[in-house]
Design a protein that fits this description.
single chain, 131 residues, alpha+beta, three-stranded antiparallel β-sheet, two-stranded antiparallel sheet, 4 helices
Length: 131
C-alpha cells in the first residue's frame, strides 16, 4: 500500500490523505479498513483494549447451619433397625421420632407398608443424614 498525499496528476484533483487498494487498485482514504470500490478488507481493525478493573472485596462468611442444629444419624444403623425391627418402629426411635415410633408399635409398622417405604427412603439418604 502506498501513501498518496497531494494532487492526483492523472485526474487533476486533490486526493488529500489517501492510499491505493491492494486488491483492485482504487484510491481510498488512508484510514479506511474496507475498500469503497471492491468491498474487501485492506487494513486491520484496531480497537483499544478495555481497561478491566476487578475490585472484589467479598468478605461474606457462610452462616449455613443446616445439620448443625440437628443430630447426625448413620444411614446403615437406621437401615438395619428398619429391616429387622421396623414393625416396632426401632428406626423411628433411633431418629428421635418418639411419636412415630409409638404409632409404628400400635399399627405394626403402619401395617407393613410404612416399613417398606422407610426402607426405600433410608437407602436413598446420604450417610450421615440429619434428623
Amino acid at each position: 500500500m502506498e501513501q498518496n498525499t497531494g494532487v492526483n496528476p492523472a485526474a487533476g484533483e486533490n486526493t488529500g490523505n489517501t492510499k491505493f487498494c491492494q486488491h483492485c487498485g482504487g484510491t481510498i482514504p488512508a484510514d479506511a479498513v474496507l475498500c469503497t470500490h471492491c468491498g474487501r478488507q485492506v487494513g486491520q481493525v484496531t480497537a483499544p483494549q478495555p481497561q478491566v478493573v476487578i475490585n472484589n472485596s467479598n468478605v461474606n462468611t457462610n452462616n449455613n447451619n443446616i445439620g448443625m442444629l440437628k443430630k447426625p444419624k448413620n444411614k446403615w444403623t437406621a437401615l438395619l433397625l428398619c429391616l429387622f425391627l421396623g414393625g416396632v418402629g426401632a428406626h423411628k426411635f433411633y431418629e428421635g421420632k418418639v411419636g412415630m415410633g409409638i404409632l409404628y408399635i400400635l399399627t405394626i409398622g403402619l401395617f407393613g407398608i410404612g416399613v417398606v417405604v422407610d426402607l426405600i427412603a433410608i437407602l436413598f439418604k446420604p450417610n450421615p443424614y440429619y434428623v
